[in-house]
Amino acid sequence: MLDRDTRHALEIPASAGEGDEGWLTSYLDVLTLLITLFVLLLSLTPPGGGEAADTAFMRSASAVSSLPLASLATGIQPRHEGLQPQFAGLNIPGVSVSQGREGVTLRIDTSLLFASGQAVLTSQGRSVVERLMDVLTRFDGQISVEGHTDSVPISTDRFPSNWELSSARAIAVVRHLESQGFNISRMRAVGYADTQPMEPNATADGRAANRRVELLLRQQVEG
Questions:
Q1: Can you give the pTM of this predicted structure?
Q2: Nearest alpha carbon to residue 218 among 113, 127, 100
Q3: Domains, the chain, ranges and CATH?
């Protein structure tokens, strides 16, 4: 039998309702991750024990420690695994690099590329695109050039809406890469208008963030 103090220490406070059980989910996630880790380590250890087994275990532990936690939890390696390191040294003002589920995204502020309401690359814009040539040439997967605008409507003879403007900007980037000798057979140009905002369009800063061109790099999947 447990004494009163011990029972009290093991009890969950009465004030802990359904909204306070987030700790339990996190705790179970950690347990699942640890179990997966040790099962993987054991599966990589050769039978028979001894020094060889100990050495193999240590090598396995080192290899597993370098894997992303999300991959350990699911047992599935992302298809774009290993893309990020080749962009680590990319240092172009106004160009950011992020890695998501689909691949690596190179995001460019359109103020670096185009004048307001235009789809002709400025001299600065051409320079930015050309500085990306080296890393794009070394990448062997599919490249999607995607134009995005804010929610402010545009209506001109050339661009009746933001759909035409965003598409024309994406095409301008692809065409300039082609003019510099880049093989565009692995590329496509897409316009999303204002349908995929990064920030709310209610503020000037938000609208500026949404005006962008993104190069989404997807690693080819071997069949």
A1: 0.62
A2: 100
A3: 4-74 (no CATH), 84-218 (3.30.1330.60)
